[in-house]
Amino acid sequence: MNTYLQNTFHQIQFTINSIKALIELIDESNFKIFPIEGKRTVGDLMSHLAIICKADLQIIGQASMEEMTAFYELNAVNSKKEMLEQLNEGYEELVCYYESLPDAFSTATSYWGTTYSQFEWLLEILAHLNHHRAQLHLYITLLGKEPVVMLFE
């Protein structure tokens, strides 16, 4: 694995570790709360976060919109324990996928028509994780807690 991939995986691992720390701060009794009207519940956001690596691998594999809808329905997680497990499994699957790639600069096209290199998709996954981590951090704050979790090294 080249240095760019190794460094990106370091950042993904750090982000996932901070997401896991944020998840630990939330009581499952808060999963049904909508901290922001019209947005996801706390539990839905955490479930989405937990399977981002796996879902985005499906997109890289050129899954259709219908396949992605089915993926999200089949892979929703409902407990903190499952969420933490899925974050770990997703990360491991992502690493295995990228270790097996002969060329990190070969391209893949999403169902909505965006074409990126495999490396660019990995950067998108990192951005996706950070985007939803920020939402989760905000949700925790809106629930009245002060999340003391390191978000950057």
Summarize the structure.
By secondary structure, this protein is mainly α.
Spans of at least 5 consecutive residues whose pLDDT stays below 50 are: none
Alpha carbon gap, first and last residue: 23 Å
Total beta-strand segments: 2
Major sheet attributes: 2 strands, antiparallel
How much strand content do the residues show? Answer: under 5%
Strand order of the largest sheet: 1-2
Structural class: mainly alpha
Q: Output the radius of gyration.
A: 16 Å
Output mean pLDDT: 96
The H/E string reads HHHHHEEH
Shape: globular
Helix content: 55-70%
Task: Quickly count the helices.
Answer: 6
Can you offer a commentary on this structure?
This protein is mainly α and 153 residues long. The chain is built from six helices and two strands, in the order H-H-H-H-H-E-E-H. The protein has a two-stranded antiparallel sheet with strand order 1-2. Helix 1 runs antiparallel to helix 5. The longest helix has 25 residues, at 118-142. 23% of the residues are buried.
Topology of helices and strands:
Elements: H1 3-24, H2 42-50, H3 52-60, H4 65-75, H5 80-100, E1 107-109, E2 115-117, H6 118-142
Antiparallel strand pairs: 1-2
Helix pairs in contact: 1-5, 1-6, 2-5, 2-6, 3-5, 3-6
